[in-house]
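Good morning,

Attaching, inline, the backbone tokens for the sequence recovery test we're adding to the shared suite. The designed sequence is right after.
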């Protein structure tokens, strides 16, 4: 960085590889987890922090709608989807 704490020069930015950088994500929501997957795939060391233990959280994500391309992404991800359901517009299976 420059002496005033500004942006890295092009020489500095080229010498930094993702493997040497660590990413901290605060919040284990679907967005935080998704960001973690992407950053991990890019080679970063990722740590995700969540304030609430999973055992006390309600299942807010149980109604998320995703298309086939999203399902394929998560199937190929580090932690694939374990269960999926298709529902009609009426909301009934």
């Amino acid at each position: 960085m420059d002496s005033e704490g500004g942006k890295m020069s092009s020489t500095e930015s080229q010498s930094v590889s993702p493997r040497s950088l660590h990413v901290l994500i605060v919040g284990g929501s679907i967005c935080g987890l998704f960001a973690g997957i992407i950053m991990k795939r890019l080679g970063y060391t990722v740590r995700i922090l969540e304030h609430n233990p999973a055992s006390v959280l309600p299942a807010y994500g149980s109604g998320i709608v995703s298309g086939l391309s999203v399902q394929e992404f998560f199937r190929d991800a580090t932690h694939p989807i374990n269960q999926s359901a298709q529902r009609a517009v009426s909301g009934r299976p």
